[in-house]
What we know:
46% helix; Rossmann fold; 2 domains; six-stranded mixed β-sheet
Amino acid sequence: MKKVLFLLIIAVLIVSSLGFVAQGAEKVVAVLTPYLASVTTNTMIRTFEEFGEEEGWKVVVIDTKGDFGALANRWEDVIAQKVDAIVMGMGDPNQLGKQIKMASEAGIPVFGGDAGYIEGMVCNVTSNNYVLSAQITSYLFNRLEGKGNVVKFYHSAHPGVRKREIIFDAMANSNPGIKVIAEHFVQVPGPIEDAKKAMESILLAHPQKGEIDAVWAAWDEPAIGAALAIIEAGRQDEIIVTGIDGNKQALEMIKKGSPIKATVKQDFVEMAKILVEQIKKVFDGEKILERIFYAPSPLITQSNVIDYLQ
């Protein structure tokens, strides 16, 4: 009798142990991006990685260094490995429609981290890029008092950046005193170096004071590159630069009085936090009704930059 009772106790312990393992099994979240070299992308993904690991997840980060063909292949790899969730770390989901559909059919939820949103995804966590652009473009045009020659740095391959460009174009077209005298599609990876080189050429093409009044950059890294070229050319007193994102290097340059005069800060830590919250809800069986979640975005100038460097 004692032997039977002992065996029953052992069986219960085994079942309990198995149940605990099943309930506490480590979730695997794959984060795929072509942009990890970008300061802002890196900030969001590394913060997400930290928060995710605090939840007990295994976060696997895959960077294809700007190679979208490789990105599609790696998506298919992680789908085949049956991960528990996929995060698109920036990028355009329209370029991965086939893979997002494959993930959905495999029962793997797909989330966007400052990416776009298409059917088949659960949600996208980002900033309101239309608002970001309206904030910084309004600041720039007001600073120019409604007239001036502006250089535009952009990267339409990113859906969020494309939204910023749309707003800038609309506002420039509605302000007859604003003239866009040069445009440059910024190459990624290496946006600072690419923008610096492009700005050097633009400065040579417009050597006289008054030929360039400002640079509108769709995010901070090309703003930094343009500002460095302007400083080296000795034209920092005649050309102002604006960016978007609020990365630390841009904030330091604003503080020091460089040509970068303003940026709009994206809260990538908050994005990562919201992203983790939504994934956790899905893992807990909750249905996510919202498709887009926005993090806050303050305008930063020399008057308040110190508050964001602490």
